[in-house]
Design a protein that fits this description.
Elements (H helix, E strand, L loop, with lengths): L5 H9 L10 H15 L9 H17 L1
Helix pairs in contact: 1-3, 2-3
Length: 66
């Protein structure tokens, strides 16, 4: 069972990340990575604000559930 903060849940909802408390740790990180690749970069391949927000979500999920 994943530990998710209120901020994590807000980001999950904002980007329609298919993750909840019952998602496995590895599947959650993979799903967040997929969304990061889709939303997180500008045309010049620089990370944008959405990318940083998703990176924060990834870091939170990783550190709170490893």
């Amino acid at each position: 069972m994943l530990i998710l903060s209120d901020q994590d849940r807000t980001t999950i909802k904002k980007f329609n990340v298919n993750v909840n408390e019952y998602t496995s740790f590895d599947d959650a990180l993979e799903e967040i990575e997929d969304k990061m690749l889709y939303y997180g970069f500008d045309a010049d391949d620089e990370m944008n604000s959405d990318g940083y927000e998703l990176q924060d979500l990834y870091d939170d999920v990783y550190y709170n559930n490893r």
